[in-house]
Write a structure and sequence with these properties.
This protein is an alpha/beta fold. Helices cover 38% and strands 15% of the residues. The protein is globular, with a radius of gyration of 21 Å. The structure holds pyridoxal-5'-phosphate.
Length: 384
């Protein structure tokens, strides 16, 4: 059996090696390292793929979130509601801009932000909601958009984990994750579903004026050479990363499909297991969503409900099976983000999930032998 890896970037590289290598040498020869033609071409190709009017590439996903908030003109003291159960980058940029983060609980079956918790947290100072499409599936965007409309709030999608996922609205229409709210942010960190070979990120919007504002902001607030109209940042995607992403973008749907196939095999092996809860898809297709594409399985995350999660992590490590706990500590209990406003009773689900979740190896190169070995090892240990 091949060595099992949490992510396998080399396998993907082998398939696009010739294209990537020749693009990189072309860029080295041209010396157009920043804002070269590759970046522009990638931007256009991603706009077409997502069905969104504007893609603004930038240096990483954290910057993408920060710049999205700057572009919307959020001011110190504005309250921004987001999920307690996510990667820290989401709340980090809110705090960094001196906005007020308002962390709320998530739902146990989808791991995504809880709509009733958002509703309870809205005050006259609330300006935005940041749904995180955690592990590769959209938050409940129907409900979030209608809450946002009712209370006049911006919706900023943290789409770092769900690029390529489709959200199916209640009326049956579909839209790509990240293109649904006022603005979306994504990351091209190497292990993300569309990963570069270094850092990268992008901001998406259908709003022409916002796109214009953001295009200047990523480049020192400059709209005309050496005229700095607003305080901006330096956040650019470099040409080499853009060339790598251009080679991968046409394969993104196939990558997502391979991840879904692996997820389906995992979930069918775990079905009927009393102490193992498999990830749920909102469309009720249980990962068999070749037509709706609702989940792109950035992570395949189980809940272990008999208290053996930590022991299972140890056991899998001993057996040579990598795994991860995303995330082990709720953000409201992280030193940087503790706040007297938070009460433990308001976070029952996050507090439970941090003790139960475990993410198994998930990438496009997993084979049946590896999946069988992983599922058998997990099932045997959980029932022993
Ligand atoms: C990875 C990630 C980010 C940050 O992306 P970087 O490119 O690493 O800065 C933000 N939010 C979520 C949910 C992520 O998973």
């Amino acid at each position: 059996m091949k060595k099992i890896q949490m992510v396998d970037l080399n396998g993907q590289y082998q398939e696009i090696k010739d294209q990537v290598n020749s693009s990189i040498s072309r860029i080295l020869e041209s010396a157009a390292f920043i804002n070269g033609p590759e970046v522009h071409a990638f931007q256009k190709e991603l706009e077409t793929y997502l069905g969104v009017k504007h893609v603004i590439p930038c240096a990483n996903g954290t910057d993408a979130l920060q710049i999205a908030m700057m572009g919307l003109g959020l001011r110190p003291g504005d309250e921004v509601i987001t999920a307690d159960f996510t990667f820290a980058a989401t709340v980090e940029v809110i705090a960094l801009l001196q906005l007020t983060p308002v962390l709320v609980d998530v739902t146990a079956d989808t791991f995504n932000i809880d709509i009733s918790a958002i509703e309870k947290a809205i005050t006259p100072r609330t300006k935005a909601i940041v749904p995180v499409h955690l592990f590769g599936q959209c938050a409940d965007m129907d409900a979030i958009l209608s809450l946002a409309e009712k209370h006049n709030l911006y919706v900023i999608e943290d789409n770092a984990q769900a690029i390529g996922a489709n959200h199916t609205f209640k009326d049956g229409s579909k839209q790509k994750a990240g293109s649904i709210g006022h603005v979306g942010a994504t990351s091209f960190f190497p292990s993300k579903n569309l990963g570069a070979y270094g850092d990268g990120g992008a901001i998406f919007t259908n709003d022409d004026a916002l796109a214009h504002t953001i295009r200047g902001m990523v480049n020192h607030g400059m709209y005309e050479r050496y005229h700095h109209d607003v305080v901006g940042v330096n956040s650019r995607l470099d040409s080499i990363q853009a060339a790598i992403l251009r080679a991968k973008l046409p394969k993104l749907d196939e990558y997502c499909h391979k991840r879904r196939q692996a997820a389906r095999k995992y979930s069918s092996a775990f079905s009927g297991q009393e102490h193992i809860v498999v990830p749920k898809t909102v469309n009720g297709c249980d990962g068999i969503c070749d037509t709706c594409d609702c989940h792109v399985f950035h992570q395949y995350t189980l809940r272990i409900t008999n208290g053996k999660r930590d022991d299972l992590v140890q056991h899998l490590n001993d057996m040579g099976i990598p795994c991860g706990v995303y995330y082990p500590i709720p953000l409201h209990r992280q030193k940087a983000y503790v706040d007297e406003r938070y009460r433990e009773v308001d976070f029952p689900v996050t507090n439970q999930l941090v003790k139960e979740v475990i993410s198994l190896p998930m990438h496009t190169e997993l084979d049946d032998e590896q999946i069988d070995f992983i599922t058998n090892t997990v099932i045997h240990f959980i029932n022993s």
